[in-house]
Design a protein that fits this description.
Layout lengths: L4 H28 L1 H5 L3 E8 L7 H14 L4 E5 L7 H4 L7 E7 L2 E6 L1 E2 L5 E4 L15 H14 L5 E7 L6 H9 L5 E6 L3 H16 L4 E6 L4 E2 L6 E2 L7 H8 L3 E4 L4 H9 L3 H4 L4 H16 L8 H8 L14
Parallel strand pairs: 1-7, 1-8, 2-6, 2-7, 8-9, 9-12
Antiparallel strand pairs: 3-4, 5-6, 10-11
Helix pairs in contact: 3-11, 5-6
Length: 326
């Protein structure tokens, strides 16, 4: 027994109607949802990811953010790595996020970011956790709810940039960030010279495209070690593959970050290398990456005080309709 033409037409109309409803819901959430309201003072939202662990995403994030801060931009960092949050320690942030009791939308309990001594606002699960030795053993659904809660229940204030430090892979946390942040400016991919890193990063770029997250550029970290004694360039991790990967995946190649002895020292001390060693080649490279980011987003200057004041006093939309349980 076959369907009549009328029945098929009716099903087609219903499918189109359901698709239209889905798009309207997505647009409402992007415009009026609690995350959109919490981020209403943030001009540019950028995520840093790779697909592979150990490539230096966190170090790249804090130094990129510090380089932008040195240029006069207001910068916040969201540490979205639930199981291995490292941003606070890398920035020497020892304080805990303050809770603020206020009724805004569905959230009576909100958080103020921790302000690092280098002027970066920091939000991380590490800043509410009992101690460094206590493991975070949350599972998928709870992790996704927690990320959305942090994004929507934090008083981000006025920022030129919110940088999101993503965990390795293309799993729950990464997908949640890509799909939950409205008007995501794009993704920055971090890789290293090893072939396996290039292979995994190619999958991460493909995942970003599937989720309609624009890839702004690719950076190759740990590209070469320059001997501090004789100046010999040593390729500890093999021949550079970053530029080749960028060409293959058709994304802009932003350049290389050298492997520097100063880097490990600065991470242990909780100081961005661009702050402690501003003239080092690695610091110059991070400033070049910051300039690439500004160029890719066509940012000409930091937000003026007048613009910041206007954003800070922009009224909230009271039609929030999502409720995320923590």
């Amino acid at each position: 027994m076959t369907q009549s033409a009328t029945d098929k037409e009716s099903i087609s109309e219903q499918e189109r109607f359901e698709e239209l409803k889905r798009k309207v819901r997505e647009q409402l959430v992007a415009t009026h949802g609690p995350i959109a309201q919490a981020l209403r003072g943030v001009k540019y939202r950028v995520a840093i990811f790779s697909g592979k662990g150990g490539v230096g995403k966190t170090v790249s994030t804090i130094n990129l953010g510090s380089a932008l801060r040195q240029m006069g931009y207001r910068v916040g960092i969201f540490d979205a790595d639930i199981h291995g949050p490292a941003v606070p320690k890398s920035l020497g942030v020892l304080g805990r996020m303050e809770t603020v009791s206020e009724h805004v939308g569905h959230h009576d309990l909100r958080f103020d970011p921790v302000l690092s001594r280098y002027g970066l606002k920091v939000v991380s699960v590490a800043s509410i956790w009992p101690g460094e030795e206590v493991p975070i053993m949350w599972k998928g659904a709870h992790k996704m709810r927690s990320i959305r809660y942090f994004l929507s229940a934090v008083n981000w204030g006025v920022l030129d940039f919110l940088l999101v430090d993503l965990p390795p892979g293309t799993g729950d946390e990464v997908q949640t960030v890509m799909s939950s942040i409205p008007n995501l400016g794009g993704m920055i991919v971090i890789t290293t010279p090893q072939g396996i890193s290039a292979m995994v990063c190619s999958k991460a770029i493909s995942a970003a495209r599937e989720l309609n997250a624009p890839v702004l550029g690719l950076i190759e970290n740990m590209s070469v070690l320059v001997c501090p004694c004789c100046g010999t360039r040593i390729q500890l991790f093999g021949q550079s593959r970053g530029e080749q990967l960028a060409r293959m995946m058709e994304v802009p190649f932003w350049g290389n970050i050298p492997l520097a002895t100063e880097m490990g020292e600065c991470v242990d001390e909780g100081v961005p290398v661009v702050v402690k060693y501003p003239d080092a080649p690695v610091s110059q490279a991070f400033r070049q990456m910051a300039a690439k980011l500004l160029d890719s987003l066509r940012v000409e200057r930091p937000m003026s005080d007048a613009e910041a004041e206007m954003l800070a006093h922009r009224p909230r939309d009271h039609h929030e309709h999502e409720h995320h349980h923590f």
